[in-house]
Amino acid sequence: MTAKSNQWWETGVIYQIYPLTFADANGDGHGDLQGIIKRLDYLNNKQENGKNSLGIDAIWLSPINDSPMIDNGYDVSNYYDICPVFGTLADFEALLTQCHQRNIRVILDLVVNHTSDRHPWFVESRSSKDNPKSDWYHWQDANPDGSVPNNWLSYFGGTAWTYCPEREQYYYHAFNQNQPDLNWNNPQVRQAVYDIVRFWLDKGVDGFRLDASSVYSKDKYYRYNPVKFGTTDKNNYNNQDHLYDKNLPENHHIIREIREIIDRYDGRVLIGETFIDSPMFDSAVFYGVDGDELHLPFNFEFTFSPWYPGYIQREIQKKERITPKGCCPTYFLDNHDIPRHLSRWIECSLCTNPKAIAQAAATILLTVRGTPVLYYGQEIGMVDYVDIPLEQRRDFAVVKGEDGELPPARDGCRTPMQWDDSVHAGFSFGKDVEPYLPVNDNYEEVNVAQQLAEDDSILKFYIRLLEIRKNSKALTQGSWRSLIHYPYEHLAYVRETAAEKVLIVINFSYEKPFELDEDIEPDNWLVLISNIQNTGQEIALPKTLQPFEISIFKKV
Ligand code: NOJ
Prior knowledge:
Blueprint: H1 8-11, E1 14-17, H2 33-38, H3 40-43, E2 58-61, E3 65-66, E4 78-82, H4 89-101, E5 105-110, H5 120-127, E6 139-140, E7 161-164, E8 169-172, H6 187-203, E9 207-210, H7 249-263, E10 269-273, E11 296-298, H8 301-304, H9 309-322, E12 330-332, H10 341-349, H11 354-367, E13 371-375, H12 448-453, H13 458-470, H14 473-477, E14 479-482, E15 490-496, E16 501-507, E17 514-515, E18 525-530, E19 538-539, E20 544-545, E21 550-555
Parallel strand pairs: 1-2, 1-13, 2-5, 5-9, 9-10, 10-11, 12-13
Antiparallel strand pairs: 3-4, 6-8, 7-8, 14-15, 15-16, 16-21, 17-20, 18-19, 18-21
Helix pairs in contact: 6-7, 10-11, 11-13
Bound molecules: 1-deoxynojirimycin.
1-deoxynojirimycin binds next to loops.
């Protein structure tokens, strides 16, 4: 087994920061690295006994490299520098040092499926058919009838091929036309990328989240993808079987090569975005053989789940089944590409109590077996900014569909962090600037300062739950077992080691009590946290779960 056990990410909690909108220190309306430094106590100040701090173990920064920002940094023009919007390399080094002093690891987003079209590699590659970098990207002639080289589509809409007059050829881009895909078949490309990996590891970063890591490899014959039978997804990309532009065997060689580099350094984690909607594979293939690929492959199970216990349990059970022995599952509710979970789940649950859903969702995320990843703001129950006016939109990477309509932007889940009820929700220290994206109107009620002052807030619940998790071997290392075969009203599951047993119960019904008749010892349970029972009391298990009860008990 390549994987070493007892690594920090197996028991730790990761917090995703969207640097553009987390905290702005220089007052220009854009989040920056100094802004993050100013907020580190909030993330982890446990060494100082910080009771108002989350106590997370790592931050994952969405891209901070130099970029023209067509896709908010997911289009890199210089991998060796920091985008001036965020600061300088010295600011990054300061952030790294200060994070490490607080036991916060720093994970970078590594965007190497593609570069920006302004990256010098592409500028050279596009200049002629015979320059030294001419095959660093995927270049193809038009078909004899003048049509694009094949039927591959961009995930952001339309054909994946864009014509380049200088070369009289098309180049391939899985995303926007400003994001040409690197040709990983070229060993020089691999070496150039691996140099980047080493550069940041030598600087001391604690790992990477590999962006779009299931689409690195492409079929060398550029064969047409089969069209799926009978599907009519609005995003045409999803109507193809991605046999030839996704998850090819070569993709796994590449990740193994990156992993080999990572393994030469101590304690570095390799995460990847591995969403593959294939009936034949699931993201567990990205753990590799004997755990020699990703430590944590991100899949999207909770992000596509309705707020329904049967569905959620099925996803957990599936992950329990497919995660190879010795490897670590990982879960998240939100990220920067999808509507926030409260926005999704309030809509589908008919529930008018967002706090209850937020606390129940937090409980699931932080008590299933696996590494949880939080997305900034979820811990205070931030929701999407719906219908940001066109003139304030920032996400134009997605292109118009065949119906001529612009798909919904991803801006709604990327709005500024709501720190307090001052101007710009305390996000920007510049009072007279427009923040990068508009602040959600609800910031006066939903913000960190407010919730730190309220004992039963969503944030206080997160802080307590994170602490409980940290102190419990059952919750960080124990097995997971459901007490219910097919839940339709509630979840009841156990996390357990030889020495510790923890029971988690959640009633999804907001109006009905529920009989708790599961097969489990009824007596002597300590209430670790609950929105109904008295925390810290030793009790017999309640026979009835109250509407929306969320309780965690520890066997004594
Ligand atoms: C996935 C990232 O999460 C998304 O934000 C980005 O637009 C695409 N990859 C392209 O890099």
